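Thread: pyridoxal-5'-phosphate complex, take 2
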Amino acid sequence: MQRKGDSTAKTSRRRFLGTTGAVAAGAALVRPSAARAAGETLALHGGPKAVTVPHADAARWPLYGKEEEDAIVAFLRNPGYGPNEELEREWQEYYQVPYVKSYCNGTSALTAMFFGLNLPPGSEIMVPSYTFFATIVPMRLFGLVPVFVDIHPRTMNFDLNDAKKRLTKNTRAVLPVHWFGNPADMDEICDWAKEKGLIVLEDCAHAQGTRLKGKLMGTWGEASITSFQQTKPVPGIEGGMGIYQNRECYERATALGHYEVPKSYPEDSPYRRYAVSGMGLKLRMHPMCAVLARLQLKRLDQRSKEGVAQTRSLNDRLTQLPGLYDQKTRPDAQRLYYDQNTLFIDEAEAGMSRETLIKALNAEGVMARPFVYPLQHKLALYAEAQWWHHKPVIPDVLPGSEQCNATAIFLPYFTKPVPELVEQYVKAFEKVWAHRKSLKA
Ligand SMILES: Cc1ncc(COP(=O)(O)O)c(C=O)c1O
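Output below.
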């Protein structure tokens, strides 16, 4: 859709404290109850569990209610594609951008975005290896080639210093991902890209409504995408959206998967002639998903704010424990949390391994697990020259990505206030920390 009129320090003793624009650091210290915890027997050793509140429902997502049910029933009684256009209009209004287009998912929005760039085959795009396949693999279809960039092990985001080392004469674009709703350093990335003449793109699949320096993620780059898949912050079960700052990219990207749209392009558009035939794909969003996404968009800002408060109420206390950190967020960023609550262990500082910690926490009733995300550059597809204009360079090692995978711990992301459960989680961690010397195998 086109807009009308357009043609690490934790306080002092820690290296960092993850903050958000919305929540001030100032959590209660765990000290007083730590002494009590030392006198209690670990559940692992036969003591009572710290976590007794049933909490299968505390991380429920998506949160659909009567309004969604009624809207779906109303849609079934009067089906049509209207919700797609309405979602596009609302998205455009929220983001204040010249062009948007809805897609059947984030993967198809990425595919169309790569086509929209109109880059010559062999053009390289810098992208984290630590991402979902969809951020990278569709490049292949247009002769584009990924250059795998490392992430910072604690922000989980695009490491600009590493990218600088990987620039080649073929590099044309950078594509940071705002991982788990944590805005990447787009100010610095955009400055560098401008200096080098690179196009800036963004994958905002996890980061709807988040901001850096007050500017919405998805509006820093020339083009960006988001996903409405059901775990995402605006869940439509499936669906995606592209944002485009320039007409050429919008018209070309949209022509790929929306055969019916080019007839609405201005007379002078080079893509208008592809009306009716389209360009070979049909990537329209299911309008029932748009019905859901529209309702969820209305709640996005409030929910994100509440989610940040809920997560901080736990993490600001847990990260007082030596060797436990959370995802580092810039103070000038307004993030959201989504899907999982990620913590990191520094095993040397904690005095125990991640495996030992998780085993002890699980025994206490904490739903914790190690988080290891498959790194794209290690997958077979990238090693086989036949699929690429020129074979991607496979880095020997991406230390930040490896460190992230060796240290990340998932806790549930509580999607509603659960103060009693938060207390019990804190207690469980304190117990384990109080006994960590005896746990050291
Ligand atoms: C970072 C990232 N980019 C893109 C996508 C693709 O979105 P979709 O699942 O809607 O195709 C996902 C989905 O999980 C994702 O995590």
